[in-house]
Design brief:
This protein is of the alpha/beta class and 640 residues long. The chain is 62% helix and 8% strand. GO terms for molecular function: antiporter activity.
């Protein structure tokens, strides 16, 4: 068999195995790295022997370098700067103080528990300070945690990767040169970070400038321009100072993502696909190159080293770095639990094993085996249980708060105002300047633009909001807007006011869009009621005793068009009422009640002329006469 075909066959096997692992992971809804590691080891020399990455020679290092550049650029591109501002102090500490804590804690564990010499122990710790985005990002998409927690984990994974890789190189150079001055090592670290950051910032700005001004280019060509640009930046930084290329790609992604380039979402999709491809191939190749015998040869001390890193060093790291943050104990506990290692640790460890062997220093294979043991244990232990832990701690995105509301009319403004008074962030969107100004007069944040533009929804922060609500006067438009929002951003709750019965429309059932409030809400009628001040704002608690009677009372008023439920408060959590939501004892229903008394009579009776409604128990709802209820049968009343 020709050598060229052998190399071709190796790459084909790696690609097929990697994509198969992704498909299987998606079907079984588990993190993909679990199957990538399993398939790689299975196909390697210690498995069935189909895959032999050493046949690629130095080509393996090239593939790893270029693939890692794409992965880190995509990670920087997806970092939300607005979200980073909310956790910036904690993130800065995780990348700086956290790196130092992991370096010292990991080296002590490796020396005292794993019985490694101090030099090799420090090298191991420098390799595992990183928590790679190749593992974190798919994991967070799978378990869908609160945005603040996700942003902190993603930011740590992306920003600490180049720092960790450069730190590892500095430690390696110190080991290879016994006379290296610590001050020289530290200055070398900062020099590499500075050079990479400067080249990345300039290159990211230049790529964004080209994509904005080069209108003659199709978006397909722009995607390739960015790909060529990031590889060019990586190579340039590596030429000027070795190991500074990773920092350049991260900063380039950050700058490019902040530049609001047209068709940016198409670029993100393209880079996301490349990242999945690169991660799949790289993990298969590196796992196949691992010797299982070398992992078992490490002994129990190495197992205890990894356990100390997971259950002692990481919690101390999170505790100190988030001490003054507004994160609650549940979020901090989840951050302490989730710190899987990824492709950068694996690739750099593989490279260092070769370099140490070439310089006649023992421990290269042991370092590689211990790093892979760390990857395997953190991925399988934390990756497979992260979803369960997030649900147990109640920090999944289903509990996310805040809303993006499309349409500035009196009813939507009232909904937004009630949410804001509960301390939830609210952003409204409308194309009508006059309507927007009315909402702004109520101290609401408004974007005067079209909600069909994904960039506008991104500017509104929909990626971190718990609810999207479309309630313009046009029901068909609302449904289309909600569908687009669900497809592009996938928020936990997508609601819209549209004139269709979701039970009778199969296409609606296949989407994530739910009708808001009622299946037949006459939004224009209720807007008119609000304009004429013919409404009252009430709240009713459904009690255990008399639950059925209260339910019939409310449903009777809903059926006659006199009441519209706005919010459901359950377990101290407020959410906009979806049509068809079954009520439970203990629920609190916030509603609007039509009050048809003329304005003149209300003013003569001393009622306030203020349009600001107050939440109260209304006797018209709580004390409906029994003789009126007797005219209604439960079968005539639709379920809410």
């Amino acid at each position: 068999m020709e050598a060229s075909f052998e190399i071709t066959l190796q790459m084909v096997i790696a690609v097929v195995a990697g994509i198969s692992a992704q498909v299987l992971a998606a079907y079984l809804r588990v993190p993909s790295i679990v199957f990538l590691l399993f398939f790689g080891i299975l196909l390697g020399s210690d498995g069935i022997g189909l895959l032999h990455p050493h046949l690629l020679g130095t080509g393996l290092e090239v593939i790893v370098a270029l693939g890692t550049a794409i992965i880190l650029f995509e990670g920087g591109l997806n970092l939300e700067l607005q979200e980073l501002n909310k956790v910036s102090t904690s993130l800065q500490l995780l990348v700086t103080l956290g790196t130092l804590i992991t370096l010292l804690g990991g080296s002590m564990a490796a020396h005292w528990l794993g019985e490694f010499p101090w030099a090799i122990a420090f090298l191991y710790a420098s390799l595992v300070v990183v928590t790679g985005p190749t593992v974190i990002s798919p994991l967070l998409k799978h378990i869908n945690v609160e945005r603040q927690v996700a942003t902190l984990l993603e930011g740590e994974g992306v920003l600490i990767d180049p720092v960790g890789a450069i730190l590892a190189v500095v430690v390696l150079n110190t080991i290879l040169n016994d006379n290296a001055d610590p001050l020289i090592a530290i200055s070398s670290l900062f020099m590499r970070l500075s050079i990479g950051g400067a080249i990345g910032a300039a290159g990211g700005w230049l790529m964004a400038f080209i994509c904005k001004r080069a209108s003659f280019l199709s978006f397909e060509v722009k995607n390739l321009v960015v790909l060529a640009g990031l590889w060019g930046l990586f190579a340039l930084a590596q030429m000027i100072r070795s190991e500074s290329g990773l920092m350049a790609t991260v900063v380039a992604g950050l700058v490019f993502g902040a530049a609001s380039v047209p068709e940016e979402r198409l670029l993100r999709h393209f880079k996301g696909q490349l990242t999945i491809f690169c991660v799949s191939v790289l993990f298969i190749l590196l796992a196949a190159d691992l010797s299982i015998a070398s992992v078992f040869a490490l002994g129990w001390g190495s197992l205890f080293t990894v356990l100390a890193l997971m259950f002692v060093v990481r919690p101390i790291n999170i505790l100190l770095c988030t001490w003054n943050s507004d994160l609650n104990w549940r979020q901090k506990l989840f951050l302490s639990w989730v710190a899987p290692r990824g492709i950068v640790s694996a690739s750099v460890a593989s490279l260092f094993a070769i370099l140490l062997t070439q310089h006649g220093i023992n421990g290269g294979d042991a370092i590689k085996a211990l790093v892979f043991l760390t990857i395997i244990m953190t991925v399988f232990c934390q990756g497979l249980t992260a979803g369960w832990v997030a649900r147990w701690l109640q920090i999944t995105a289903k509990q996310a708060t805040g809303a993006v509301i499309v349409g500035c009319n009196p009813l939507s403004i009232l909904v937004a105002r009630l949410l804001q008074e509960r301390g939830e962030p609210v952003v409204m969107i409308d194309t009508d300047q006059e309507a927007s100004q009315k909402a702004q007069a109520q101290n609401l944040q408004v974007i005067t633009s079209s909600a069909l533009d994904a960039n506008v929804l991104e500017e509104a922060g929909l990626a971190s909001m718990g609810t999207f609500l479309a309630m313009t006067k046009n029901g068909e438009v609302n449904f289309v807007l909600a569908q687009r929002a669900a497809e592009e951003f996938n928020p936990p709750r997508v609601l819209a006011v549209f004139p269709r019965d979701p039970q009778a429309n199969n296409s609606t059932n296949k989407t994530k869009v739910n009708q808001a409030f009622l299946s037949d809400l006459q939004i224009k009628t209720w807007i008119q009621y609000l304009n004429d001040e013919q409404v009252k704002l009430g709240i009713s608690t459904l009690k255990e005793n008399g639950f059925s009677l209260q339910k019939v009372q409310l449903q009777a008023l809903i059926r006659t068009g006199e009441l519209v439920p706005l919010f459901l408060e359950r377990d101290e959590k407020l959410q906009i009422m979806p049509a068809g939501e079954p009520w439970q004892a203990g629920d609190r229903i916030i509603y609007l009640l039509h009050d048809p008394r003329p304005n003149l009579l209300k003013r003569l009776s001393g009622a306030s002329q203020s349009t600001r409604l107050s939440l109260e128990k209304l006797p018209e709802v709580e004390e409906v006469p029994i003789n009126k209820l007797s005219q209604l049968s439960a079968s005539d009343v639709p379920a809410p």
